Protein backbone atom coordinates (compact mmCIF):
# COMPACT_ATOMS: atom_id res chain seq x y z
CA UNK A 1 0.00 0.00 0.00
CA UNK A 2 2.18 2.76 1.24
CA UNK A 3 4.82 0.66 -0.26
CA UNK A 4 3.14 1.25 -3.47
CA UNK A 5 2.94 4.90 -2.75
CA UNK A 6 6.60 4.85 -2.02
CA UNK A 7 7.17 2.91 -5.16
CA UNK A 8 5.28 5.50 -7.04
CA UNK A 9 7.37 8.25 -5.64
CA UNK A 10 10.51 6.25 -6.23
CA UNK A 11 9.50 5.59 -9.79
CA UNK A 12 8.65 9.19 -10.46
CA UNK A 13 11.91 10.17 -8.94
CA UNK A 14 13.71 7.64 -11.11
CA UNK A 15 11.91 8.93 -14.16
CA UNK A 16 13.11 12.38 -13.32
CA UNK A 17 16.64 11.17 -13.32
CA UNK A 18 16.91 10.36 -9.64
CA UNK A 19 17.84 7.01 -8.19
CA UNK A 20 16.25 4.80 -5.65
CA UNK A 21 17.66 5.64 -2.28
CA UNK A 22 19.48 2.31 -2.16
CA UNK A 23 19.90 0.45 -5.37
CA UNK A 24 22.77 -1.94 -5.83
CA UNK A 25 22.79 -3.11 -9.39
CA UNK A 26 20.80 -0.30 -10.93
CA UNK A 27 20.87 0.03 -14.66
CA UNK A 28 19.33 2.68 -16.84
CA UNK A 29 16.36 2.01 -19.08
CA UNK A 30 15.40 3.75 -22.26
CA UNK A 31 12.22 5.15 -20.77
CA UNK A 32 14.05 6.72 -17.88
CA UNK A 33 12.74 4.29 -15.28
CA UNK A 34 15.31 2.01 -13.85
CA UNK A 35 15.63 -1.61 -12.95
CA UNK A 36 16.59 -2.03 -9.33
CA UNK A 37 17.60 -5.01 -7.24
CA UNK A 38 17.33 -5.17 -3.47
CA UNK A 39 16.19 -1.60 -3.35
CA UNK A 40 14.97 0.51 -0.49
CA UNK A 41 13.16 3.81 -0.73
CA UNK A 42 12.58 6.02 2.26
CA UNK A 43 9.92 8.68 2.37
CA UNK A 44 9.89 11.46 4.96
CA UNK A 45 7.09 13.59 6.30
CA UNK A 46 6.61 17.08 4.92
CA UNK A 47 8.34 20.33 5.78
CA UNK A 48 6.94 20.38 9.30
CA UNK A 49 8.54 17.08 10.21
CA UNK A 50 11.35 16.50 7.78
CA UNK A 51 13.38 14.26 10.03
CA UNK A 52 10.58 11.78 10.54
CA UNK A 53 10.32 8.74 8.30
CA UNK A 54 6.88 8.25 6.83
CA UNK A 55 7.47 4.99 5.05
CA UNK A 56 10.16 2.57 3.97
CA UNK A 57 9.64 0.59 0.83
CA UNK A 58 11.87 -2.30 -0.06
CA UNK A 59 11.84 -5.02 -2.64
CA UNK A 60 13.92 -7.70 -4.23
CA UNK A 61 13.40 -6.36 -7.72
CA UNK A 62 11.70 -3.52 -9.58
CA UNK A 63 11.09 -4.09 -13.27
CA UNK A 64 9.93 -1.13 -15.41
CA UNK A 65 7.21 -1.97 -17.94
CA UNK A 66 5.65 -0.03 -20.82
CA UNK A 67 2.95 2.46 -19.97
CA UNK A 68 4.45 3.58 -16.73
CA UNK A 69 3.98 0.23 -15.01
CA UNK A 70 6.43 -1.26 -12.61
CA UNK A 71 6.58 -4.86 -11.46
CA UNK A 72 7.82 -5.12 -7.91
CA UNK A 73 8.84 -8.43 -6.41
CA UNK A 74 9.05 -9.28 -2.72
CA UNK A 75 7.49 -6.01 -1.77
CA UNK A 76 7.69 -4.84 1.84
CA UNK A 77 6.25 -1.55 2.95
CA UNK A 78 6.53 -0.15 6.46
CA UNK A 79 4.43 2.88 7.37
CA UNK A 80 5.16 5.08 10.37
CA UNK A 81 3.09 7.70 12.12
CA UNK A 82 4.50 11.19 12.81
CA UNK A 83 5.68 9.99 16.22
CA UNK A 84 7.90 7.41 14.63
CA UNK A 85 5.77 4.44 15.63
CA UNK A 86 5.39 1.63 13.14
CA UNK A 87 1.73 1.53 12.11
CA UNK A 88 1.48 -0.90 9.21
CA UNK A 89 3.62 -3.51 7.51
CA UNK A 90 2.63 -4.78 4.07
CA UNK A 91 4.15 -7.75 2.29
CA UNK A 92 3.38 -9.02 -1.20
CA UNK A 93 5.36 -11.49 -3.31
CA UNK A 94 4.63 -9.44 -6.41
CA UNK A 95 2.55 -6.54 -7.62
CA UNK A 96 2.20 -4.15 -10.53
CA UNK A 97 2.34 -0.46 -9.80
CA UNK A 98 0.87 2.10 -12.18
CA UNK A 99 3.00 5.17 -11.82
CA UNK A 100 0.49 7.36 -13.65
CA UNK A 101 -2.64 6.35 -11.75
CA UNK A 102 -0.98 5.80 -8.43
CA UNK A 103 -2.49 2.38 -7.92
CA UNK A 104 -1.03 -1.06 -7.43
CA UNK A 105 -2.62 -4.42 -7.87
CA UNK A 106 -1.94 -8.11 -7.95
CA UNK A 107 -3.89 -11.33 -8.27
CA UNK A 108 -1.55 -12.86 -5.74
CA UNK A 109 -1.18 -13.05 -2.03
CA UNK A 110 -1.00 -10.09 0.33
CA UNK A 111 -0.24 -9.77 4.02
CA UNK A 112 -0.92 -6.72 6.14
CA UNK A 113 -0.34 -6.26 9.84
CA UNK A 114 -0.30 -3.47 12.35
CA UNK A 115 2.98 -2.40 13.87
CA UNK A 116 2.37 -4.33 17.07
CA UNK A 117 1.33 -7.41 15.09
CA UNK A 118 -1.95 -7.80 16.94
CA UNK A 119 -4.04 -7.23 13.82
CA UNK A 120 -3.05 -9.30 10.81
CA UNK A 121 -4.82 -9.68 7.49
CA UNK A 122 -4.10 -11.77 4.45
CA UNK A 123 -5.96 -12.56 1.28
CA UNK A 124 -5.76 -13.19 -2.43
CA UNK A 125 -5.80 -10.39 -4.96
CA UNK A 126 -5.66 -6.74 -4.03
CA UNK A 127 -5.89 -3.19 -5.27
CA UNK A 128 -4.05 -0.39 -3.54
CA UNK A 129 -4.98 3.24 -4.07
CA UNK A 130 -2.15 5.50 -3.11
CA UNK A 131 -4.07 8.78 -2.96
CA UNK A 132 -6.01 7.86 0.17
CA UNK A 133 -4.15 4.78 1.39
CA UNK A 134 -7.11 2.57 0.61
CA UNK A 135 -6.64 -1.15 0.16
CA UNK A 136 -9.13 -3.67 -1.19
CA UNK A 137 -8.45 -7.38 -0.78
CA UNK A 138 -10.52 -9.32 -3.25
CA UNK A 139 -10.90 -12.87 -1.99
CA UNK A 140 -10.50 -15.17 0.98
CA UNK A 141 -9.85 -12.40 3.46
CA UNK A 142 -8.56 -13.82 6.72
CA UNK A 143 -7.98 -11.62 9.76
CA UNK A 144 -6.38 -12.55 13.07
CA UNK A 145 -6.84 -10.30 16.09
CA UNK A 146 -4.56 -11.31 18.91
CA UNK A 147 -5.39 -11.48 22.58
CA UNK A 148 -8.81 -9.91 22.62
CA UNK A 149 -7.77 -6.78 20.82
CA UNK A 150 -11.19 -6.48 19.23
CA UNK A 151 -13.35 -7.36 22.16
CA UNK A 152 -12.81 -7.23 25.84
CA UNK A 153 -12.96 -10.59 27.50
CA UNK A 154 -14.00 -10.92 31.09
CA UNK A 155 -14.58 -8.18 33.62
CA UNK B 1 26.02 -19.09 87.03
CA UNK B 2 26.50 -22.00 84.64
CA UNK B 3 22.93 -22.95 85.16
CA UNK B 4 21.85 -19.40 84.38
CA UNK B 5 23.97 -19.37 81.22
CA UNK B 6 22.49 -22.65 80.05
CA UNK B 7 19.02 -21.26 80.60
CA UNK B 8 19.87 -18.12 78.62
CA UNK B 9 21.33 -20.18 75.77
CA UNK B 10 18.35 -22.49 75.77
CA UNK B 11 15.93 -19.57 75.66
CA UNK B 12 17.92 -17.91 72.90
CA UNK B 13 18.02 -21.08 70.82
CA UNK B 14 14.34 -21.56 71.34
CA UNK B 15 13.63 -18.02 70.19
CA UNK B 16 15.76 -18.50 67.11
CA UNK B 17 13.91 -21.68 66.22
CA UNK B 18 10.62 -19.88 66.73
CA UNK B 19 11.78 -16.96 64.64
CA UNK B 20 12.90 -19.22 61.84
CA UNK B 21 9.62 -21.04 61.99
CA UNK B 22 7.78 -17.76 61.67
CA UNK B 23 9.93 -16.70 58.76
CA UNK B 24 9.19 -19.97 57.05
CA UNK B 25 5.52 -19.67 57.77
CA UNK B 26 5.38 -16.09 56.55
CA UNK B 27 7.33 -16.79 53.44
CA UNK B 28 5.38 -19.85 52.48
CA UNK B 29 2.25 -18.08 51.29
CA UNK B 30 4.29 -15.65 49.29
CA UNK B 31 6.24 -18.34 47.56
CA UNK B 32 3.09 -20.34 47.08
CA UNK B 33 1.44 -17.36 45.40
CA UNK B 34 4.46 -16.67 43.29
CA UNK B 35 4.78 -20.23 42.14
CA UNK B 36 1.09 -20.80 41.68
CA UNK B 37 0.29 -22.03 38.19
CA UNK B 38 -2.78 -19.78 38.24
CA UNK B 39 -0.75 -16.60 38.73
CA UNK B 40 -0.45 -16.01 35.01
CA UNK B 41 -3.57 -16.67 33.03
CA UNK B 42 -3.07 -18.55 29.81
CA UNK B 43 -2.97 -16.41 26.71
CA UNK B 44 -6.32 -15.88 25.08
CA UNK B 45 -6.85 -17.48 21.73
CA UNK B 46 -7.06 -15.00 18.88
CA UNK B 47 -10.24 -13.76 17.27
CA UNK B 48 -10.59 -14.69 13.61
CA UNK B 49 -12.52 -12.68 11.02
CA UNK B 50 -13.06 -14.24 7.62
CA UNK B 51 -14.98 -13.14 4.57
CA UNK B 52 -15.31 -14.94 1.27
CA UNK B 53 -15.75 -11.73 -0.65
CA UNK B 54 -13.77 -8.54 -0.61
CA UNK B 55 -12.67 -6.40 2.30
CA UNK B 56 -11.61 -2.77 2.32
CA UNK B 57 -9.00 -1.27 4.61
CA UNK B 58 -8.59 2.42 5.18
CA UNK B 59 -5.07 2.49 6.54
CA UNK B 60 -5.19 6.18 7.31
CA UNK B 61 -8.54 5.94 9.05
CA UNK B 62 -7.73 2.62 10.71
CA UNK B 63 -10.96 1.04 9.56
CA UNK B 64 -11.75 -2.35 8.04
CA UNK B 65 -14.90 -3.23 6.10
CA UNK B 66 -15.77 -6.85 5.36
CA UNK B 67 -18.40 -7.95 2.84
CA UNK B 68 -20.08 -11.17 1.88
CA UNK B 69 -20.23 -14.14 4.16
CA UNK B 70 -18.49 -12.63 7.18
CA UNK B 71 -17.63 -14.93 10.08
CA UNK B 72 -16.16 -13.95 13.42
CA UNK B 73 -14.79 -16.87 15.40
CA UNK B 74 -13.88 -16.01 18.94
CA UNK B 75 -13.14 -18.40 21.83
CA UNK B 76 -16.29 -17.20 23.56
CA UNK B 77 -18.53 -16.22 20.68
CA UNK B 78 -19.34 -16.84 17.05
CA UNK B 79 -20.89 -14.27 14.74
CA UNK B 80 -22.01 -14.29 11.13
CA UNK B 81 -23.32 -11.41 9.06
CA UNK B 82 -23.19 -10.02 5.56
CA UNK B 83 -21.35 -6.78 6.31
CA UNK B 84 -19.05 -5.76 9.12
CA UNK B 85 -17.01 -2.65 9.74
CA UNK B 86 -14.47 -2.46 12.53
CA UNK B 87 -12.19 0.24 13.77
CA UNK B 88 -8.66 -1.06 13.87
CA UNK B 89 -7.07 0.11 17.11
CA UNK B 90 -3.82 1.95 17.24
CA UNK B 91 -0.94 0.04 18.78
CA UNK B 92 -1.89 -1.00 22.28
CA UNK B 93 -5.36 0.45 21.93
CA UNK B 94 -8.81 -1.06 22.10
CA UNK B 95 -11.36 -0.91 19.27
CA UNK B 96 -14.31 1.22 20.20
CA UNK B 97 -16.74 0.79 17.34
CA UNK B 98 -17.79 -2.29 15.41
CA UNK B 99 -20.93 -2.59 13.32
CA UNK B 100 -22.37 -5.82 11.91
CA UNK B 101 -25.30 -5.64 9.52
CA UNK B 102 -27.68 -7.92 7.63
CA UNK B 103 -28.58 -11.34 8.94
CA UNK B 104 -26.59 -10.92 12.11
CA UNK B 105 -26.38 -14.11 14.15
CA UNK B 106 -24.42 -14.33 17.39
CA UNK B 107 -23.97 -17.42 19.56
CA UNK B 108 -22.27 -17.23 22.90
CA UNK B 109 -22.01 -19.37 26.02
CA UNK B 110 -22.13 -17.94 29.52
CA UNK B 111 -20.32 -19.20 32.60
CA UNK B 112 -23.16 -21.61 33.35
CA UNK B 113 -22.61 -23.26 30.03
CA UNK B 114 -25.87 -21.94 28.65
CA UNK B 115 -25.87 -21.16 24.99
CA UNK B 116 -27.46 -17.90 23.90
CA UNK B 117 -28.49 -17.25 20.34
CA UNK B 118 -29.20 -13.73 19.08
CA UNK B 119 -30.48 -12.73 15.66
CA UNK B 120 -30.94 -9.18 14.41
CA UNK B 121 -30.58 -6.95 11.41
CA UNK B 122 -27.85 -4.89 13.01
CA UNK B 123 -25.47 -5.08 15.94
CA UNK B 124 -23.33 -2.18 17.15
CA UNK B 125 -20.47 -2.63 19.59
CA UNK B 126 -19.29 0.41 21.54
CA UNK B 127 -16.42 0.61 23.97
CA UNK B 128 -15.27 3.59 25.99
CA UNK B 129 -13.62 4.45 29.28
CA UNK B 130 -14.86 7.61 30.98
CA UNK B 131 -13.55 8.72 34.35
CA UNK B 132 -12.11 5.30 34.90
CA UNK B 133 -15.41 3.57 34.18
CA UNK B 134 -15.55 1.12 31.31
CA UNK B 135 -18.64 1.21 29.12
CA UNK B 136 -19.03 -1.71 26.78
CA UNK B 137 -22.29 -2.48 25.03
CA UNK B 138 -23.66 -4.37 22.06
CA UNK B 139 -26.93 -2.94 20.74
CA UNK B 140 -29.15 -5.08 18.53
CA UNK B 141 -31.72 -3.36 16.29
CA UNK B 142 -33.50 -3.86 13.01
CA UNK B 143 -36.69 -3.62 11.04
CA UNK B 144 -37.58 -7.03 12.37
CA UNK B 145 -37.22 -7.26 16.12
CA UNK B 146 -33.97 -8.70 17.40
CA UNK B 147 -34.50 -11.99 19.18
CA UNK B 148 -32.53 -13.75 21.89
CA UNK B 149 -33.02 -17.45 22.49
CA UNK B 150 -31.72 -19.78 25.12
CA UNK B 151 -32.84 -22.88 26.99
CA UNK B 152 -35.36 -20.90 28.99
CA UNK B 153 -37.16 -19.44 26.04
CA UNK B 154 -37.17 -16.67 23.51
CA UNK B 155 -37.08 -12.96 24.19
CA UNK B 156 -37.53 -10.21 21.66
CA UNK B 157 -37.59 -6.44 21.79
CA UNK B 158 -37.50 -3.38 19.61
CA UNK B 159 -33.96 -2.90 20.86
CA UNK B 160 -31.80 -5.30 22.83
CA UNK B 161 -28.83 -3.80 24.61
CA UNK B 162 -26.23 -6.18 25.94
CA UNK B 163 -24.39 -4.28 28.67
CA UNK B 164 -21.20 -6.26 28.79
CA UNK B 165 -19.61 -4.10 31.47
CA UNK B 166 -22.40 -4.90 33.93
CA UNK B 167 -23.45 -8.29 32.60
CA UNK B 168 -27.01 -7.22 31.95
CA UNK B 169 -29.33 -7.26 29.02
CA UNK B 170 -31.93 -4.55 28.45
CA UNK B 171 -34.98 -4.97 26.23
CA UNK B 172 -37.04 -2.11 24.82
CA UNK B 173 -40.69 -3.10 24.39
CA UNK B 174 -39.91 -6.67 25.31
CA UNK B 175 -41.84 -9.74 24.29
CA UNK B 176 -41.09 -13.06 25.89
CA UNK B 177 -41.88 -16.55 24.76
CA UNK B 178 -41.31 -18.91 27.66
CA UNK B 179 -41.02 -22.66 27.64
CA UNK B 180 -42.79 -24.41 30.49
CA UNK B 181 -40.44 -26.02 32.93
CA UNK B 182 -41.95 -29.28 34.20
CA UNK B 183 -40.26 -31.36 36.89
CA UNK B 184 -37.18 -29.21 36.70
CA UNK B 185 -36.54 -30.03 33.09
CA UNK B 186 -37.25 -28.08 29.99
CA UNK B 187 -40.27 -29.56 28.29
CA UNK B 188 -41.05 -29.38 24.65
CA UNK B 189 -44.82 -29.14 24.11
CA UNK B 190 -47.08 -28.71 21.20
CA UNK B 191 -49.00 -25.95 22.88
CA UNK B 192 -48.60 -22.48 21.43
CA UNK B 193 -45.97 -20.41 23.15
CA UNK B 194 -47.02 -18.12 25.95
CA UNK B 195 -46.46 -14.52 25.01
CA UNK B 196 -46.12 -11.92 27.73
CA UNK B 197 -45.95 -8.23 27.12
CA UNK B 198 -43.83 -6.49 29.67
CA UNK B 199 -43.73 -2.72 30.05
CA UNK B 200 -40.80 -1.06 28.41
CA UNK B 201 -37.62 -1.10 30.39
CA UNK B 202 -35.16 -3.44 31.91
CA UNK B 203 -36.43 -6.89 32.76
CA UNK B 204 -33.26 -8.15 34.24
CA UNK B 205 -34.91 -9.78 37.23
CA UNK B 206 -37.61 -11.60 35.32
CA UNK B 207 -35.60 -14.77 35.17
CA UNK B 208 -32.18 -14.72 36.67
CA UNK B 209 -31.45 -18.08 35.18
CA UNK B 210 -32.12 -16.82 31.75
CA UNK B 211 -30.07 -14.46 29.71
CA UNK B 212 -31.09 -11.24 31.41
CA UNK B 213 -28.25 -11.34 33.86
CA UNK B 214 -25.21 -13.01 32.54
CA UNK B 215 -22.49 -14.25 34.79
CA UNK B 216 -19.87 -14.05 32.15
CA UNK B 217 -19.08 -11.74 29.32
CA UNK B 218 -18.21 -13.63 26.22
CA UNK B 219 -16.24 -11.73 23.70
CA UNK B 220 -18.20 -10.14 20.91
Structure write-up:
The complex is a heterodimer of chains A (155) and B (220). Chain A has 155 residues and is mostly beta strands. Chain A is built from one helix and eight strands. The N terminus and C terminus of chain A are likely disordered. Chain B folds into two domains: 35 residues; 150 residues, Lipopolysaccharide (LPS) transport protein A like domain (lipopolysaccharide transport protein A fold, Sandwich). Chain B has one helix and 15 strands; from the N terminus they run αβββββββββββββββ. In chain B, strands 1, 2, 3, 4, 5, 6, 7, 8, 9, 10, 11, 12 and 15 form a 13-stranded antiparallel β-sheet that branches. Chain B has a two-stranded antiparallel ribbon with strand order 13-14. The chains are: A mainly beta (155), B alpha+beta (220).
Largest sheet of chain B: 13 strands, antiparallel
Structural class of chain B: alpha+beta
CATH-derived topology of chain A: lipopolysaccharide transport protein A fold
CATH class of chain A: Mainly Beta
Total domain count of chain A: 1
Coarse morphology of chain A: globular
Radius of gyration of chain A: 16 Å
CATH superfamily of chain A: Lipopolysaccharide (LPS) transport protein A like domain
Q: From the coordinates shown, what is the CATH architecture of chain A?
A: Sandwich
CATH class of the largest domain in chain B: Mainly Beta
- Helix tally of chain A equals 1
Question: What tags apply to this protein structure?
Answer:
heterodimer, A: mainly beta, lipopolysaccharide transport protein A fold, 1 helix, 8 strands, 55% strand, disordered N terminus, disordered C terminus, B: 220 residues, 2 domains, two-stranded antiparallel sheet
List the helices and strands and how they pair.
The complex is a heterodimer of chains A (155) and B (220).
Chain A: H1 2-15, E1 27-28, E2 34-44, E3 53-65, E4 69-80, E5 86-98, E6 103-114, E7 119-129, E8 134-145
Antiparallel strand pairs in A: 1-2, 2-3, 3-4, 4-5, 5-6, 6-7, 7-8
Chain B: H1 2-35, E1 47-51, E2 55-58, E3 63-74, E4 77-87, E5 97-109, E6 115-130, E7 133-141, E8 147-150, E9 153-156, E10 159-163, E11 168-172, E12 175-178, E13 181-182, E14 185-186, E15 194-197
Antiparallel strand pairs in B: 1-3, 2-3, 3-4, 4-5, 5-6, 6-7, 6-8, 7-10, 8-9, 9-12, 10-11, 12-15, 13-14
Amino acid sequence: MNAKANITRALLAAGAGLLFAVAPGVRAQQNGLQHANNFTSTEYYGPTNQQQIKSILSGAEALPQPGGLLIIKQLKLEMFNPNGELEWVVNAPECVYDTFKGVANSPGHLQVRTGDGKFRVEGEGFLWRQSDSFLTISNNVHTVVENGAIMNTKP
Amino acid sequence: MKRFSLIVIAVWCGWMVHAQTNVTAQSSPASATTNSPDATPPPRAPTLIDSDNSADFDLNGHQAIYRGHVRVDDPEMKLTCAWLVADVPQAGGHPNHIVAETNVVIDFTDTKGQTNHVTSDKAVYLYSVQNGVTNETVTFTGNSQPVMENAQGTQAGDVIIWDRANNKIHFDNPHMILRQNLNGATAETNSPPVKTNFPPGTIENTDKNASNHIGDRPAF
